[in-house]
Design brief:
It is built from one helix and eleven strands; from the N terminus they run βββαββββββββ. With 136 residues, it is mainly beta. The strands form two sheets. Strands 6-7-8-9-4-3-10-11 form an eight-stranded mixed β-sheet. One of its GO terms (molecular function) is metal ion binding.
């Protein structure tokens, strides 16, 4: 089984995941735009187990459909490294794709909140777009 490690800018906070991502996607919601400081978030979801090293600050945000997401940030450099969804598949984790610093990382297969995507952002071929979050 393959192993991947992502870390923050200063290296203090790390997460190691096992296997290939279950899904890689983009989120264009306004909350993700503000959270990342970019025009979208690129995320990779992994099944557990995973291992975290270092100290993390947390921020909990409620999504449009009521789900609660717990985001983990490095308290030293501020990098948003990963998040979990409370009460759902507690063993899974979503990691910010850029924190792997791997240009060969698998491309996104879906794009959510595409209705809020900046007009100049082009999606990769084969990436399925949803106007909002298709999750129930």
């Amino acid at each position: 089984m393959s192993e991947r490690t992502a870390h923050c800018s200063c290296g203090q906070l790390r997460i190691t995941v096992q296997g290939e991502p279950r899904v890689v996607g983009l989120c264009h919601c306004l909350a993700c735009q503000r959270r990342t400081g970019s025009v979208f978030a690129a995320l990779a979801a992994f099944a557990g187990p995973y291992e975290v090293q270092g100290q993390a600050s947390e921020f909990v945000r409620q999504g449009d459909q009521g789900a609660r997401f717990r985001f983990r940030f490095c308290p030293a450099c501020g990098t948003n490294l990963f998040h979990t969804e409370e009460g759902v598949d507690s063993g899974s984790v979503s990691v910010a794709v850029g924190t792997f610093a791997d240009p060969d990382f698998p491309p996104p297969r879906f794009s959510i909140y595409d209705s809020r995507r900046h007009g100049w952002v082009q999606l990769p071929a084969g990436c399925q777009a949803f106007a909002k979050d298709p999750a129930p």
